[in-house]
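# nightly structure sweep
# worker-07 picked up a monomer target from the shared queue
# config: single-sequence mode, recycle default, output format = structure tokens
# input follows
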Amino acid sequence: MDKLSDRGIQKILIILLISSAAIRGFLAGFLELGNDEVYYWTYALYPELSHFDHPPMVGWVIQIFTLDLLWEHEFFLRLASIVFGTLNTWIIFKIGAKLKNHLTGLYAAFLYTASIYCFLIAGTFILPDTPQLLFWLLSIYFFSIVFFGDARPHQTNLYLILAGVSIGLGMLSKYTSIYLWFGVIAYLLLYERQWFKKGALYMALAVSILCFLPVILWNIDNDWISFTYQGGRANLFESGIKPDNFFRELMGQILYNNPFNVAIILIALWSVIRHKRNFSAKKTKFLLWISLPLILTFLFLSLFRGTLPHWSAPGYLGLIIVAAAFIADRVKQSQNEKVIPVWIQLSLSILLIVVILGAGQIKSGWLFYDYSEDPRNLGKNDVSLDMYGWKQLGEQKLPFNLPIIAHRWFPAANLDYYVAYPNDTYVLAIGELSSIHKYAWINQARGGFYLGMDAIYISLSRDYKDPEELYSAYFREITPLDTLAIMRGNRKVQNVFVYHLQDLQLLPDPFH
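# output follows
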């Protein structure tokens, strides 16, 4: 192998950063917003100290990068993901370089880029995970300096407090960032108890709580509703063990984090178990403690409840660094191995295939067409339609002088961004709080409902809901207005059913 100098490694890193940002930037402007993304646009449209289902950071980030929604194109709504994803790749390089060497940092950057979660879900789309990953990696970097660096005592204290700030900001992004403190405290209790004699540790904990204060204040004003809702999602044992959920979570973690990445991680962990250390023992234990608890928690919860694979994905960041150190050692021991090993090439290839096929399916339907003889089920099983057809719908002729009524937070937000907002009308939602989420508060901000009002209801065949079942108790009459077609190329892929809701007879309970 031709040995790379640190300067050569940095050149490769720069190429990786630029190419990754360019691809993600293209996708950000090319694809319509997904259900979750367009919902978080409402966080920026109606900012609060916190929100029903998530902390406020994603909305604040959207406000910053769009200049308070001055620029509302999909690219600008996702711009934070492009910028943060690029910073994250550089930060994980710095962590690998600090904990071991520059080659480890380079391989960590490649593995991070190859992760479908890191590259697409958090690095292209705008989600709470976008700022969370930035603060998660910054926290690891600061703790690496504190525990394994050679900084002077006053510098160590400063970096420890910065870690506390970073975790606090991470908690303002997603609640699961608290797992960083759990992992750090467990590590210190087991291996570095002398840190509990240092006041800076407690200051760092206090700073994290202080950063989280907006969420606490909002929940005090709203009867702790966020914590009640999230706690209910974690309620166990109500329906017994569900092996299907566990298998779905496990496979989801493997797919989201890239199967080849996961394979490398497992091989590296097996090496650790066999005491073939690629780091010092303490560094390895630190990385495992900030990684495995989050992953194992959601694998356990999935035995009893439905979970989503991206909830555990930040836990894989520490494992990526462990895997990168393992690869770096093997590369240095080999005389024939390429600078970018085959396993990393395979991981990057999987990512590239997912990007090309996914974007192609969304825009052109390359892979799958979900035909149904029932017009109300056309496209029902085509998940790519979540990110297609909304712009086309917004260009259709509809009675825009009327508000649009929705039954759930999606498609409420999709209709809001792509149909109502560009046409100077608005969306209100009628449904249980567990279904409409932030729209309970948006309803109030928009003046709510009044007796005798008319509205329109729009339902797509991908997710058709009969308005008679939903709203016959509220409106005197419900009349079909039109059936529209969503076309992808020359093929109709969805039907859009438009109804006129006439004469509201019963005011909905705003928070039932």
